Amino acid sequence: MLSPKSVLITGCNRGLGLQFVQQFLNLTSPPKYLFACCRNPDGAKDLTELAKSNSCVKVLQLDVTKQETIDKAVEIVKSMVKDDGLNLLINNSAILDPANLEQTTRDKMRNAFEVNAIGPLMMAQTFLPLLRQAASQYPDKPMSCSKSAIINLSTGVASISENSSGKMYPHRSSKAALNMITSNLSIDLKSDGILCTAIHPGWVKTDMGGPNALISSEESLKGVLAVMEKLEGEEGSGKFYHGVRGNLIGW
Ligand SMILES: NC(=O)c1ccc[n+]([C@@H]2O[C@H](COP(=O)([O-])OP(=O)(O)OC[C@H]3O[C@@H](n4cnc5c(N)ncnc54)[C@H](OP(=O)(O)O)[C@@H]3O)[C@@H](O)[C@H]2O)c1
């Protein structure tokens, strides 16, 4: 059963981030602390409403490209979770720049890498002491999303082995970098008992996925949470999963 005591998710004001918050609240054992991060809490109406009716939801201001906001968030989280640490970090926020070869600029590449790859890496680095703390609470249990884990929301178009249609330079390459970061973290954090895996949520009807996408946020995350629930031990770490079909995707 997926039952982390504390979860932190980036990009919770809309799309899959908001849906993550809703689905964690609906778990049989909802988290004691659900840190829902967004860039602009004042404009996050739906999230603020959820926080009003669910005391476990703490809305935190966080922009993954601004280290000072990450540092501030980690202090708030630390003061609340105390010795329990943080069980689950979900790097959900991202941007999609589909620029083709002619349209791609240095700035477009830099922006995509800042948000989609460097941001999640710095989140993992900054929250590492709290993730380690959580893992140390259950030294005899195998790695899992309830014990201590980093889940990176990736995308099928980041797969190098499955790329057959080209284009989308900023998006494909920044998410492929996120995949390598995921794989690397899974190796570096194995001895700490921290699981790290990438999940593709399917083509989803959000602002990013657009209206022609195949599935709703609800359907997508039902699958993603089911995959997360099954991730266990070394077998579950350093992988790239299709969150809806439940199969592995080739890197
Ligand atoms: N939807 C799909 O079909 C699909 C397919 C494959 C993978 N994914 C992945 O699933 C995840 C969620 O996607 P989505 O469809 O929910 O996207 P979305 O609807 O476009 O939402 C993106 C979220 O990321 C936030 N964000 C953007 N830049 C940020 C920054 N610098 N710091 C913090 N937050 C930032 C946005 O906040 P603001 O409102 O402030 O901009 C928003 O909350 C992403 O990682 C995406 O790549 C989605």
What does the model show?
By secondary structure, this protein is an alpha/beta fold. The chain has one domain: NAD(P)-binding Rossmann-like Domain (Rossmann fold), CATH 3.40.50. Helix content is 41%, strand content 13%. The protein has seven helices and seven strands. Strands 3-2-1-4-5-6-7 form a seven-stranded parallel β-sheet, with helices on both faces. α3 (67-81) runs parallel beside α4 (106-136) and α4 (106-136) packs parallel to α5. The radius of gyration is 17 Å and the shape is globular. The two termini are 28 Å apart. The model has no long low-confidence stretch (mean pLDDT 98). NADP nicotinamide-adenine-dinucleotide phosphate binds at residues 10-11, 13-17, 38-40, 63-65, 92-95, 115, 153, 155, 200-201, 203-204, 206-209, 213. The site of NADP nicotinamide-adenine-dinucleotide phosphate has 29 residues, from α1.
